Amino acid sequence: MLKILVSYPGGFAVMADLKRDMAILATSGRDWAERTKRLASRMPDLDIFSQGLVERESGGWKITEKGRAVLEFLEARPGTDQILQAPLTETVAAPVPALRQPAERAKRRRKRRERRREARERSRANAS
Asked: pTM, whole model, 2 decimals?
């Protein structure tokens, strides 16, 4: 999301544009998916809303200066982590609510899979 917002003038995009760009990127192949996973692994506790990296403004979202700093950190080459680490921790040191524990996430994921499987079974039963 940060990458999309930073590409717009002033870092602001309306929801329709964001949805379109996200759909394009989501279907652009393995390269983008792998790049996204790599970036996410550099900052696993990233939450663009609670950390104040993105603001909601009149029908759209806008990237904040803090969001730009985090994006710069995420995209920095691995050798520059030590250089960026000190300023970044000061920038992103806002209080962050605790994320759900891995066990809770796994439980939610399992329930979601079960609901999908049940929905597939219902649709197959209705089709026959």
From this structure: 0.54
In which domain, by residue range, is 122 found? 100-128
User: Which amino acid does the sequence have at 84?
Assistant: L
List the one residue out of 70, 53, 71 whose CA is nearest residue 62: 53
Question: Are 120 and 65 found together in one domain?
Answer: no
61 plus 91 within the same structural domain = yes
Alpha-carbon Rg of the chain, whole angstroms? 18
Question: Tens digits of per-residue pLDDT, 12-35?
Answer: 989 899 889 888 888 877 887 788
Distance CA 17, CA 23 (A): 10
CA distance linking residue 126 with residue 128, whole number of Å: 6
pLDDT in tens, 109-126: 889 999 999 998 988 888
